[in-house]
Design a protein that fits this description.
single chain; alpha/beta; FAD/NAD(P)-binding domain; Enolase-like, domain 1; 3 domains; five-stranded mixed beta barrel; five-stranded parallel sheet; 13 helices; 21 strands; globular; FAD/NAD-linked_Rdtase_dimer_sf; flavoprotein; redox-active center; NAD; FAD/NAD-bd_sf
Length: 475
């Protein structure tokens, strides 16, 4: 007997569970299907973000940063400690506990909002009168009928051709989060978010980390000034980088992994490491969805084809998050999930990709929103820029972390803020002010005229806004 719902959401990652909750808030009878499971086989909603991405990586970053501070920086504060040791197993166990808290929190939110949760794999069976039949394959098989379907199945790590992940020596983000002991040597292919964050974790714990990047430069999506400052900091910490490389044969053996590559000068090189993290991007995850059963259209990259409102080619079928176009970011997925639920209710859900912030949670942190200088130059937009270093910020000095700066870019004529770029302490938190300002079409002068608490890191935001008009007060 099929169970009837107004909205069925396939996938309980950030886009899926948030979309399901918002739809339920709007008065719909909602079901959410997800097949992720914990070590005991129980449900583990939250998607890649909660289980093997954003949340666990931040837990490891926090633990490893505490360890590094104890080793190298406590003395600056007058704190003396004995021999500092890292229990990697305990660190990983804490990470798992943090993940479980988030899994349980989502299940609680489903109950609170009366969302029916089904633990299993959701797939299209057929189109039926007034909607779609969805099969749930799991511990208990179910058949659901939905008027509307929201697909939020996320993405999977992209493997190198012919080099599958074994999650023992050749690792995706999943395996990189579960390394049982700190390796002596670690290779990373790809200098994006995952590569930098995981490379930083294991470098702090003693690994000799080498990052191989195919692109000729570092962090091409970031503002050039930010990328330059970040690379200088990471190199000083001990991360090793090779840019413009072409990766060749990769061999995995008893002692580790051998990576043959051609460097930027055309010379043949070999890197020998205990473990290798491959972080070369992600691919949309549609395995098991059975799109053929209903004629759901996918593009050449495997993304579900949607319009600007996240509508697919099928009536009342929507898709959000990593499985569609746009940045593969958890917060982008959440915004799309909310917008789709509101559109189903006849409201006007809205997502502005230009206001989606980007964050890399390394030390220093990197965050930005809006356009970079190089993008504005390429588009022929007249702009003015201002920059303020954390070295001149009292709170940063008190923290003992003065690396980096805040940079504002504004329209040369109107002074409207076009982009804000931060590298330094708590950049992930500071960027929110820029998002709010840009959402309200604020000018650099608006931020410059707002009273910021003293002493605070946010004063650097105000000072960078002042710098656009070349009138900083503390630098």
């Amino acid at each position: 007997m099929s169970k009837q719902f107004d909205v069925v959401v396939i996938g309980a990652g950030p886009g899926g569970y948030i979309g399901a909750i918002r739809a339920a808030q709007l008065g719909f009878n909602v079901a959410c299907i997800d097949d992720s499971q914990n070590d005991k086989g129980g449900p583990a909603p939250g998607g890649t973000c909660t289980n093997v991405g954003c949340i666990p990586s931040k837990a490891l970053l926090q633990s490893s940063e505490h360890y590094e501070h104890a080793l190298h920086h406590f003395g600056d504060h007058g704190i003396s400690v004995g021999e500092v040791k890292m229990d990697v197993a305990k660190m990983v166990a804490r990470k798992a506990a943090v993940v479980k808290q988030n899994n349980d929190g989502i299940l609680y939110l489903f109950k609170k909002n009366k969302v029916s949760f089904f633990h299993g794999r959701g797939s299209f069976a057929k189109a039926v009168d007034g909607g779609y039949e969805i099969t749930v394959t799991g511990a208990a098989n179910e058949t659901l009928t939905a008027k509307h379907v929201i697909i939020a199945t996320g993405s999977s790590a992209r493997a190198l051709p012919g080099v599958p992940f074994d999650e023992e020596k050749i690792l995706s983000n999943d395996g990189a989060l579960r390394i049982p002991t700190a390796p002596k040597s670690l290779g990373v292919i790809g200098s994006g978010v995952i590569g930098l964050e995981m490379g930083s974790v294991w470098r702090r714990l003693g690994a000799d980390v080498t990052i191989l990047e195919a692109m000729p430069g570092f962090l091409g999506a970031a503002d050039e000034a930010v990328a330059k400052e970040a690379l200088k900091a990471f190199t000083k910490q001990g991360l090793k980088f090779q840019f413009g490389v072409k990766v060749g044969e990769i061999k995995s053996g008893k002692k580790g992994v051998s990576i043959a590559y051609t460097d930027a000068k055309g010379a043949e090189q070999t890197l020998e490491v205990e473990k290798l993290i491959v972080s070369i991007g992600r691919v949309p995850h549609t395995a098991g969805l059975n799109p053929e059963a209903v004629g759901l259209k996918l593009d050449e990259r495997g993304c579900i084809v949607v319009d600007g409102d996240c509508k697919t080619n099928l009536p009342n079928v929507w898709a959000v998050g990593d499985v569609v176009r746009g940045p593969m970011l958890a917060h982008k997925a959440e915004e799309e999930g909310v917008a789709v639920a509101e559109r189903i209710a006849g409201q006007h859900g809205h997502v502005d990709f230009g206001l989606v912030p980007w964050v890399i949670y390394t030390s220093p942190e990197i965050a930005w929103v809006g356009r970079t200088e190089q993008q504005l130059k390429a588009d022929g937009v007249a702009y003015k820029a201002g920059q303020f270093p954390f070295l001149a910020n009292g709170r940063a000095r008190a923290l003992g972390d003065t690396t980096g700066f805040v940079k504002f870019i504004a329209d040369a004529k109107t002074d409207e803020i076009l982009g804000v770029h931060i590298v330094g302490p708590y950049a992930s938190e500071l960027i929110a002010e820029a998002c709010v300002a840009m959402a309200f079409k604020a000018s650099a002068e608006d931020i410059a005229r707002i009273c910021h608490a003293h002493p605070s890191l946010s004063e650097s935001t105000k000072e960078a806004a002042l710098a656009v008009d070349k009138r900083t007060l503390n630098f």
